[in-house]
């Protein structure tokens, strides 16, 4: 398990993997944060395509090519907006990770990179979100033989510290 999980601090849009997961919103039309970085690096063909997809519900994903990104594909995952915790946010966030992993498995992808879904503009508490992210990936990898590497790509020192500690506690760092 340990060698199938990596913690990276940096820009998700620079990851050379089969798929990067984008923190999208339900419209799939360009926003801020990591979504903006992905669209900037992927070029205008990505926005042209995502505009035509009819959106995506919270907790679900849609797959596109990566266009000008180093990544071959983008899995557009819609995480929940934090509303205090009583609106099934944890379930929706877990579903966004699960749906991303499932589509990667179905497509035969070997490598995937996640940002910290929902923890920026959507304000999901970072600790709780990291627990869900790591928990879902570990659960999935335990029953999967196809994915070789899951990268957690963190952008801030704070997220790096949270993930390093949580992975360390599980013997995965
Ligand atoms: N590489 C990796 N991580 C990044 C990057 C980057 N280039 N830029 C930001 N992050 P956010 P959300 C981190 O706000 O909270 C968009 O407008 C950031 O530090 O991108 O799910 C969508 O269209 C944070 O840890 O996504 C939606 O409307 C994480 O990425 C909305 O934002 C997620 O922050 C989604 O909000």
Short note summarizing the structure:
With 173 residues, the chain is an alpha/beta fold. The chain has helices at residues 33-42, 44-51, 89-107, 126-142, 157-169, and strands at residues 5-9, 19-24, 61-65, 73-78, 111-114, 149-154.
SSE layout and pairing:
Elements: E1 5-9, E2 19-24, H1 33-42, H2 44-51, E3 61-65, E4 73-78, H3 89-107, E5 111-114, H4 126-142, E6 149-154, H5 157-169
Parallel strand pairs: 1-6, 2-4, 2-5, 5-6
Antiparallel strand pairs: 3-4
Helix pairs in contact: 3-4, 4-5
The structure holds ligand AR6.
The site of ligand AR6 has 25 residues, from strand 2 and helix 1.
Structure description:
Strand 3 (61-65) and strand 4 form a beta hairpin. The protein has 5 helices and 6 strands, in the order E-E-H-H-E-E-H-E-H-E-H. The mean pLDDT is 97. It has one domain (2-169): Leucine Aminopeptidase, subunit E, domain 1, CATH 3.40.220. It is α/β, with parallel strands linked by helices and 173 residues long. It has helices at 33-42, 44-51, 89-107, 126-142, 157-169, and strands at 5-9, 19-24, 61-65, 73-78, 111-114, 149-154. Helix 3 runs parallel beside helix 4 (126-142). The structure holds ligand AR6. Ligand AR6 is lined by residues 11-13, 23-25, 31-35, 37, 79, 115-122, 153, 155-156, 159.
Bound molecules: ligand AR6
Q: What's the order of the H and E elements?
A: EEHHEEHEHEH
Shape: globular
CATH architecture: 3-Layer(aba) Sandwich
Low-confidence stretches: none
- Helix share, percent: 25-40%
Q: Please identify which CATH superfamily we are dealing with.
A: Leucine Aminopeptidase, subunit E, domain 1
Q: Give the DSSP E fraction (strand runs of 2 or more residues).
A: 15-25%
Radius of gyration: 15 Å
Q: Determine the mean pLDDT.
A: 97
Main sheet: which strands, in order across? 1-6-5-2-4-3
Identify the CATH class.
Alpha Beta
State the distance separating the first and last CA atoms: 10 Å
Number of strands: 6
